[in-house]
Amino acid sequence: MTAEEVAEELMVSQSKISRLENGRRSISQRDVRDLCRTYKVEDKALVDSLMQMAKESRQQGWWNAFGDVPYSVYIGFETDAASLRVYEPQVLPGLLQTPEYAEAVISGALPEAPQEQIAQRVQVRLRRQERITDPAAPLRLWAVVDEAAMRRVVGSPKIMSEQLEYLVRMSHEPHVTVQALPFEMGSHPGMSGQFTILEFSDESDTSVVYLEGVTSDLYLEKHTDVQSYSMMYEHLRAQALNVDQSRQFITEVAREHARRHEQG
């Protein structure tokens, strides 16, 4: 079977099959199961063995030192990516979060999680942020952030003020672009929710669209899907404030949070 035939059978992109075959992408147990079914591998012991190997192979990334990370597939993509285009309607981008804000976000999202698990996730998030400050190959990040994410008081007004000030500081980095999308801009293509477009330096690796879910995540690699989300992102960037206006806007919201903190 050709890579095209396998991709069509599994309803995935050809680039995903190519990445798996060339060892450029970690393989999940489900991938192994689906490929074995496609290749008509009927030896259950062999399939089980391959699936176990897939499980063990996923322990090679730095994130595995933190235990069972539920979005390890995404971290693998992010680690290999050259650039990210992110739209965030509810929370500020994870790669630009302060430790205090990150802890407040994770605690709110996982109200029943033990403190140890929350601390672990915060550490993973901070470790991911090292890509932004990597002097050798910093990750190119473009983030469009909805006003709702800036107005929502996560943790406390003090945490929000410090977080937004940090966001402005990071926006001055040459490889980081932050645009604010105010309420007054009205409806826009991103109203369906958060998404991230990951792009890679190797031309043979097509871009990937990441959609975060509560219990499972979705990765879109088909050219038409990536193209649709890329077009959506261009519209979002056009509707958002420019870089200088965004810094002024975010700074003013930060001051409002600071005044709220001072007032008690």
From TrEMBL:
* A Pfam short name: DUF5753
Question: What keywords does the record list, in alphabetical order?
Answer: DNA-binding
Q: Where is the HTH cro/C1-type domain?
A: 1-46
- UniProt xrefs under CDD domains: HTH_XRE
Asked if the keyword Hydrolase belongs to this entry, the reply reads no
Example GO molecular function: DNA binding
Official protein name in the record: Putative DNA-binding protein
